[in-house]
Amino acid sequence: MNLYTYHQELYGLTQKQEKLIEENNFEQLLEIIDKKQEIIDEIDKLNLDEYLKKKEKPEEAFKELKKVMERIKNLEVSNQKKLLKKKSEFVKEMNDFNSKQKARKGYQIDNKFDAKIIDEKS
């Protein structure tokens, strides 16, 4: 594969990542992140100068590559914001759940207090 193809594939996986975040499908999200890391590792092995030298129109090829990279970056920023929002929603739900659990336990505990002092006047 060439550099542009890798970036296109990375963009496609980032789009899938967006859908999985919206669907709360975090198991598959982790798989997508692993695939993206593999592609990034392959991209790191390639040389941009060599890629552009092989192109008939290097400036145009560079512009196209830059466009794809910008789309990836923008989508990554959006995905990160969505994940942070999901995280804060999850934390709020957990806090609500914990406070409800504490309230239930308060009603379920038997009265464990015995009378320690007896009032003589009664």
Keywords:
122 residues; mainly alpha; rod-shaped
Describe the structure.
The structure is a single chain. The protein has 122 residues and is mainly α. It has a domain at 3-84. It is built from four helices and no strands. It has helices at 3-22, 26-45, 48-53, 58-108. The termini are far apart. The mean pLDDT is 88.
Topology record:
Blueprint: H1 3-22, H2 26-45, H3 48-53, H4 58-108
Helix pairs in contact: 1-2, 1-4
Distance between the termini: 93 Å
Major sheet details: none
- Which structural category fits the helices and strands? mainly alpha
Low-confidence stretches: none
Count of helix runs:
4
Outline: rod-shaped
- Helical proportion? over 70%
Brief description of this entry?
With 122 residues, the chain is mainly alpha-helical. It contains 4 helices and no strands.
